[in-house]
Structures are given as C-alpha cells and as structure tokens.
Design a protein that fits this description.
The protein has 6 helices and 23 strands. Strand 3 and strand 4 form a beta hairpin. The longest helix has 14 residues.
C-alpha cells in the first residue's frame, strides 16, 4: 500500500481500507462489538466533524490538518524515545501502555499499586467496560472505532497515591493516533493524576473514561506540551462518572496549539462534589476549544466551573459550558463561570453558557464575559512607575488567578 494523505473529513471513507488492526476489525478485541457500533454510527449518520456542535471551534483548521498513513511499522524493540518521559509513571498511546516496574508489581514498598489494564492481558477484564464507550455522535467515536486497543489503570479500594501519565507518540509517525483509555478509581480512594499531552505531527483523538467510585476522590491536573505546538492537533473527550458521595477536581492549563479540543463531560450522582478550573494563555495563531458539561443526576450535589482565557495576537478560544439538572437532582448547587481577556484587536473568543434545569429546588448561576484590559487599571500601575509591558503582564496574571 502506498502512502495515503488524508484529513479527518475523509476518515469515514477509510474504514474499509484496513489501514490498521483496529478494534472494529479485530474480532478478538474485547471492545470489538462496541467499536463496530461506533463505526456503524459514523457510517449511518455521517462524519461527526461536520456536526454543528463544533461550529465555533474553528473546524476548518482541523479539516486542513493532514495525516499520512503508510505501511511502515514500528520495530519490535522500539520504545518511547523522549528523555522527558523518564519522569512519568505511565506512558500511553494507541493500544500501548508502559509502566515503571513498581507499578507492575502488586505491592511495592508496602504500598498497593494500581493495576495496569492492557488488551494483551486476559486478567484486565476490559470487556465489562463496553457500556462506557457507546457512540455519542462526537469525533471521539473515531477513537473507539479506529483504536487498536483499550488501555488504562484500575485503583483498588482505599488506595491513596499520585500517578503521572504521559500521553506520547509510540509510533513516531505522521498518521492519526486513536487512543482509548479507562481509569477506574475504586471505593474510598484518594488519587491524584498528573497528565501531560505531547504533540506530534499528526492528529490524535482521545476517548478517556474516568470512573470515580463511591466515596472516592480523584484530582486530575492536565497540561499540554508547549513544544511542537505548530504541528500538534489534539481532540480529547473525557467522560467522568461520579458515583454517589465522590469528589472530582479537574485543573487544566495550556497555551493552545495548532488545534485543541478539550471536552469534559461529567455525570454527577447523589452527594458529590465537582470542581473544574482552567487557565489558558493563548498567543500567535494557536487555537483552544474547551467544553465542560456537568450533568447533575442525583440530589444534594455541588459543582463549580471556572474557565479563564487570555487571547493575544490572532489566537482563538471557544468555550461551551453546560449545567444540566435532572428532575430528581433536588438540592443541587451549581455555578458556571467563563471569562475571556482579549489583548489584541485580531484575537477572537466565543463563549456559550447553557442551563437546562428541570427542578426548582436548586441554586444555580452562570456568568460569561469577553473583555479587554482595563485602561484605568493599566494607568494606575503605569502611574506608579511600572513599565507598560510589565503592567499588562501583571494584569493578565491577576486575571487568570483571581
């Protein structure tokens, strides 16, 4: 097979070319059935990239991003060859997971470790997670249909520990990477995960499911690599299921890249706490698109969402925030905030808050703004001898942190 150059807009036409041993083609895959379901949904309803849902996310830039499929394969002795990856406990890519030796042992220095989930291990029992990877009509359906296998971590009950995960490029090519990941946090756990997404010269689509079991606490601190931003394109859909009485905190920072979608969907059941905090400092012609969808299903839960972006030069930011409160979710206390600071006349920002409330017994608020640097505040700092560029930088940092 010769090299094939294609965009995500053409991806749905390539299923039958069998460019990779994907879960939808591999009948022995534990997620084969649901992968086929995702594939069939795309073929029946059309390529999801053309969905109006993405209208404010600069889809043209995504469609112009080209991938290169070829027959070249990774040598058997190939390993992630980036010195920085040595800092991480776990490295993940499409169908591949590599963990430090202490994580592969059941017990290390009297500390219980998470179980590494791999499609090559019969003890992973990954088939039981199929319901969490059903088609959604989003671009992430490609991740499930085209991925070579699901990988992840399972934390046993009552564990308390931190883990660092690098999402890097195992294949070292310019082709599309489709990554499906399952993070299962057991009951009464207290887990912190530091995530870093590395760029590559090719599109990467992620579908990551986090299960936060009863009374467990999960904190995710997500960062995007600042190197390779001119060629990096990442679409990350995260689905969080908070079981009753659980806590979830999400902190994300970044500077954008050639293209980023960071979509966070959170199902919140009874008595849960949810906190989402994001800060982005965009410049150049970089693009960052954020979605935070909090669905309150159970009663007496709280959620706080606060996403802030500084947009300079010709950069673009979009934010779609939703709070959905079911009829049964009485006692919900939810707040949604998105603030954008434009520091150039050519920067652009779109913010869309949405509330869908089905009960009266709640407290729910939202506030979304797009503004410029306050000239009076700038003058105040300048009048005290602070140079203009330093004064502007001070106001920008205060905007992100206040």
């Amino acid at each position: 097979m010769a090299n094939i150059e294609y965009s995500i807009g053409e991806l749905h036409n390539l299923f039958e070319l069998e460019l990779r041993n994907s879960m939808s083609l591999n009948e022995s895959s534990v997620l084969h059935d649901v992968a086929v379901e995702n594939k069939d949904n795309i073929m029946e309803n059309g390529n999801p990239v053309f969905n109006k849902y993405y209208k404010n996310m600069k889809p043209k830039a995504l469609l112009e991003h080209l991938n290169l499929a070829s027959q070249s394969s990774v040598p058997n002795d190939y390993h992630w060859d980036i010195p920085e990856l040595e800092e991480f406990d776990v490295i993940i890519d499409d169908g591949h997971i590599e963990a430090k030796s202490e994580l592969t042992n059941k017990k290390w220095n009297n500390i219980w470790n998470p179980k590494v989930l791999s499609p090559y291990s019969t003890r992973s029992n990954l088939e039981k997670y199929q319901p969490y990877f059903k088609p959604t009509g989003k671009i992430s359906d490609f991740a499930v249909a085209h991925s070579t296998g699901i990988v992840g971590l399972k934390y046993p009950a009552k564990m308390s520990r931190g883990t660092s995960i690098a999402y890097s490029d195992y294949y070292n090519d310019k082709d599309l990477n489709c990554v499906t990941v399952l993070i299962d946090v057991g009951k009464n756990c207290d887990v912190t995960i530091d995530e870093k997404f590395f760029n590559k010269d090719g599109l990467k689509i992620f579908k990551i499911v986090y299960l936060v079991r009863d009374y467990a606490s999960l904190t995710i601190e997500r960062k995007f690599d600042i190197d390779g931003k001119d060629c990096g394109a990442n679409i990350i859909e995260s689905n969080v299921i908070q079981f009753p009485k659980s806590k979830f905190e999400y902190k994300v920072t970044g500077e954008g890249s050639k293209y980023i979608q960071d979509l966070m969907y959170i199902d919140v059941y009874e008595g849960c706490e949810t906190n989402v905090r994001g800060s982005f400092d965009l410049y150049g012609d970089y693009i960052n698109n954020s979605v935070v969808d909090v669905h309150h299903i159970g009663k007496d839960s709280t959620s706080r969402v606060d996403i802030r972006s500084i947009i300079d030069d010709t950069a673009h930011s979009s934010f779609l925030g939703s709070i959905i409160v079911d009829k049964e979710a009485e006692g919900t206390d939810a707040e949604l905030v998105n603030k954008n600071l434009l520091v150039s006349n050519t920067a652009s920002a779109v913010t869309e808050p949405q509330l869908d409330i089905h009960t009266k017994e709640i407290a729910c608020s939202h506030g979304c703004t797009v503004s410029n640097i306050d000239k009076q505040q700038l003058y105040f700092l300048e009048s005290r001898g602070i140079e203009t560029h330093i004064a502007e930088e001070t106001l920008k940092q205060c905007f992100l942190k206040m």
